[in-house]
Amino acid sequence: MFDVYAFATPNSVKVTIALEELGLPYTLHGVNVRKGEQKTPEFLALNPNGKVPVLVETNEARRMFVLAESAAILVFLAEKTGQLLPAAGQARARVFEQLFFHASGLSPAFGQSGFFQRFAATPEPIALERFSTEANRTLHVLDTVLAKSWFVAGEEFTIADIAHFGWLWRRGFPNITLDDTPHVARWYADIESRPAVQRGIARIEALVPQD
Q1: Could you give the CA distance from residue 211 to residue 206 in angstroms, rounded to a whole number?
Q2: What pTM did the predictor assign?
Q3: What is the distance between the alpha carbons of residues 74 and 182, in angstroms, rounded to a whole number?
Q4: Which positions ≥6 away from 126 have C-beta within 8 Å?
Q5: Dihedral sign for Cα atoms in the order 162, 165, 169, 175
Q6: Are the C-beta atoms of 191 and 13 separated by less than 8 Å?
Q7: Are 4 and 26 in contact (CB under 8 A)?
Q8: DSSP code at position 86
Q9: Which of 52, 71, 116, 134 has the most CB atoms around it within 10 Å of its CB?
Q10: Which residues neighbour 44 within 8 Å (Cβ) at sequence distance 6 or greater?
């Protein structure tokens, strides 16, 4: 059985989508990052880094395995089930290439661009230009990739697609559009139409309190 600690964030939705795609049962626990619940002693005991998502697997002996970082969680779930990740060779390498590109490039660029647009205490033009430019650059890199293949790592849907989808789902945060990246737009619509993806999104969105 899995327990997932999450909120309506780009990284959290990756985990619920993966679990829905893999057909794995899980219990979802909301951690309201808007209220700072990720910094409570109880949550920090699970993840000292104080960030969602966190996956907890409890085996039949009641032993717990706790894992943070969305990319690591995606790899763990894929390897556990033998799905959404090629077993070996160049196809597997392509998936990791995109996972690392996401974790080191697209994801931080989107996140920092959104932060400096929305939350910086004082205007930071250099930082805003730097990260906004990088966010758009990485999006166009992804568009180039998707011009050559149906999914981001080839012709099969993998955890690399789930990783990228998480931040594209929240592209309004860094004020990004898909207007001039037609291949990303085609890919996004295709992923968004998957029933498991829709279920994963719905579970995450239900964590947001209704004012």
Answers
A1: 13
A2: 0.95
A3: 27
A4: none
A5: positive
A6: no
A7: yes
A8: -
A9: 52
A10: 50
> Cα(157)–Cα(126) distance, rounded to whole angstroms?
37
pLDDT at position 211: 60
Give me the half-sphere count of Cα atoms (radius 13 Å) on the Cβ side of residue 109: 21
> Which tokens hold the place of 191?
């992923």
Helix (H) or strand (E) holding 41: helix 41-46
Distance CA 122, CA 129 (A): 14
Q: CA 119 to CA 107: how far, in whole Å?
A: 17
Q: Which two tokens stand for residue 46?
A: 């699970």
Question: How many Cα atoms are found within 13 Å in the side-chain-facing hemisphere of 32?
Answer: 7
Distance CA(205)–CA(8), nearest Å, equals 6
Q: What is the pLDDT of residues 27-47, one digit of tens each?
A: 999 999 999 999 999 999 999
Mean of pLDDT over the chain: 96
Q: What is the 3-state secondary structure (H, E, C) of the chain?
A: CEEEEECCCHHHHHHHHHHHHHCCCEEEEECCHHHCHHHCHHHHHHCCCCCCCEEEEECCCCCEEEEECHHHHHHHHHHHHCCCCCCCHHHHHHHHHHHHHHHHHHHHHHHHHHHHHHCCCCCCHHHHHHHHHHHHHHHHHHHHHHCCCCECCECCCCHHHHHHHHHHHCCCCCCCCCCCCHHHHHHHHHHHCCHHHHHHHHHHHCCCCCC
| 8 token code pair | 């309506």
